């Protein structure tokens, strides 16, 4: 990306202030932050708004989450929205005790300048919505309410299976695999979204 001038930065900031999440109309490749914003369809953080006002480079990342019964695997994209990196596994003692989990996610969002969340959506193989998927929908609503960010539900069928297969190839024991499988699942969820995002450069996902 290249830097943008003061007038363009002010225009983007005014637009963002008037209507949170408004899409910009520029077309073409990612030649400026405004165009990257349109293709990523993300919200601007307060830090990035200030960067735009100063004509500085902005950083935008997307968070991937694998929501489980007592864990949440977390992955973050790079600034160019090309690759996903595993960050951590957030653990809780009881399934419905989410206060500390949400607080940790919110802290990571601030730390990494996250502008959008991609949440794994565990449908059944026949494409029906079961109990786990319904719980993911409820968690998505809580994420939206807590963070104010867009939350994308991303089909994660077979993602956990794929994560286990990858770890099996490393020769890790069962205990060690249990510590990282949710983080790897989050990576696979987010990478799937990023791959489609980069494939569809002439539109939005």
Write the layout of secondary structure elements.
Elements: H1 6-18, H2 33-40, H3 46-53, E1 61-67, E2 71-77, E3 84-91, H4 99-112, E4 114-121, H5 131-147, E5 150-155, H6 159-170, H7 174-199
Parallel strand pairs: 1-4, 4-5
Antiparallel strand pairs: 1-2, 2-3
Helix pairs in contact: 1-3, 6-7
TL;DR of this structure?
With 205 residues, the chain is an alpha/beta fold. It has helices at residues 6-18, 33-40, 46-53, 99-112, 131-147, 159-170, 174-199, and strands at residues 61-67, 71-77, 84-91, 114-121, 150-155.
Q: List SSEs in N-to-C order.
A: HHHEEEHEHEHH
The overall pLDDT, averaged over residues, is 76
Radius of gyration: 18 Å
How helical, in percent, are the residues? Answer: 40-55%
The end-to-end span amounts to: 21 Å
Count the DSSP helices: 7
User: What best-fitting shape do the alpha-carbon axes yield?
Assistant: globular
β-strand amount = 15-25%
Largest β sheet strand count, sense and barrel closure: 5 strands, mixed
Structural class: alpha/beta
Number of strands: 5
Strand order of the largest sheet: 3-2-1-4-5
**Would you identify the regions where 5 or more consecutive residues have pLDDT less than 50?**
1-6, 15-43
